[in-house]
Design a protein that fits this description.
4 strands; 25% strand; 127 residues; Double Stranded RNA Binding Domain; 2 helices; four-stranded mixed β-sheet; alpha+beta
Length: 127
């Protein structure tokens, strides 16, 4: 999994970058096929921060936005949102029964017949 941490209108310190990478690395526990994760930090006007986590998986891109009083708080809130998104996404992929669908839906095929056992009366005609 490729993780990138960038800042808009700010420089990202190595401590903040390591913090974000350490937190985002746990997203693979929720969805195994994650190919790339981008974390974008942005300072707001009222001395707060916003965080955006963009997750790239095959055929899907999930995005979570959040804000907080500090950059680490914003990352934590955005990470919680992404965990919920990944859980919902995985449930959608699994289907309504929570597992793989059975082929044929459990119904018998049109040409298949149930075996019929002969009763004891029919077998005595040869005597």
């Amino acid at each position: 999994m490729n993780i990138s941490v960038t800042g808009r209108h700010m420089s990202v310190t190595p401590v903040l970058k390591d913090y974000a990478i350490g937190k985002v690395d746990h997203l693979q526990h929720y969805f195994e096929r994650v190919s790339k994760v981008e974390v974008v930090l942005n300072p707001e006007k009222d001395s707060t921060f916003s965080a955006e986590i963009v997750l790239h998986a095959p055929k899907h891109t999930l995005v979570a936005h959040a804000g907080g009083k500090s950059a680490t708080a914003a990352v934590d809130v955005a990470l919680e949102k992404m965990e919920r998104l990944l859980t919902k996404h995985k449930e959608k992929l699994r289907g309504p029964k929570g597992g793989k669908e059975r082929r044929g839906g459990g119904k018998r095929r049109a040409g298949a017949e149930t075996p019929v056992e002969a009763s004891s009366d029919e077998g005595e005609d040869w005597l």
